[in-house]
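Input sequence (125 aa), recorded before submission:
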Amino acid sequence: MKYLLLVHHNEDTFNKITEVKRKEMLEESIQLCHRLDGKRQYVHASPLQPESTGIVVRVRNGKATVTDGPFAETKEQLAGYFLIEAQDRDDAVRIAKLIPGARIGTVEVRPLREITGLPGEAKQP
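Predicted structure, token format:
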């Protein structure tokens, strides 16, 4: 089953960490991705640009509203994600504990819904 591990942290706190430590955390995340790939559990992962670069799109009653980020006043912002294959919830939680961002923020573990008909899927006979 696929799980999305959403990494949240406080951008101000993250920016106060030394550049050396941030690079170490990134390298640790990359190494984790390689370990997961070796176990066929890695699907995709990426850090996100700062929240201020985001744009929010809403459509209500046929009218679109586009707002520059940030879109919410929160203590923690979405910082990145890992999309993984896990045997079950416990396996996904075990992997989430290995993410360096969990040490400075939180990692939300969310199972993906299985749906058919998406591009790139093998066609069912």
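Checked by second reader. The chain has three helices and six strands.
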